[in-house]
Design a protein that fits this description.
Elements lengths: L1 E6 L2 E6 L6 H8 L18 E4 L2 E4 L5 H4 L3 E3 L15 H10 L5 H4 L18
Parallel strand pairs: 1-5
Antiparallel strand pairs: 1-2, 3-4, 3-5
């Protein structure tokens, strides 16, 4: 089925099943890979996008539920009025990939993913 969604201010036409998660439409159909797959259960926040200004987990949001809403992804950072400084988004994107710990990028970490400290050992 054909859907037209407004992503980052641009109307995009996609031909997918209505129960396809928005995450996979963004990544696989539109090629917008800034929104990440994390847990697939809306717990980690890696797939968060804004739908009409409300933070929404795109891994559990179906494309048919989006309707005429405005979808804003991480790719829009630096193009909004809020980020008025040139290159401000580039600074954050570079900081996320410049880590000497390469394993973080291999585990699909996202700068927006909340990380909780875990004790190494529970025995004294």
């Amino acid at each position: 089925m054909a859907f037209t969604i407004k992503v980052n201010g641009v109307a995009q036409s996609v031909d997918v099943d209505g129960d396809t998660p928005l995450l996979w439409v963004l990544r696989d159909v539109l090629g917008m890979t800034g929104t990440k797959f994390g847990c697939g259960m809306a717990l980690c926040g890696a797939c968060t996008v804004h739908i009409d200004g409300t933070a929404t987990r795109s891994c559990i949001t179906t494309i048919d539920s989006v309707g005429d809403s405005r979808v804003t992804t991480i790719e829009a950072i630096g193009t909004t009025q809020r980020s008025s400084r040139p290159g401000s988004s580039l600074k954050y994107r570079n900081a996320a990939t410049a880590s000497p710990d390469r394993s973080c990028r291999l585990r699909r970490c996202s700068p927006a993913t909340p990380i909780r400290p875990t004790p190494i050992s529970t025995t004294p």
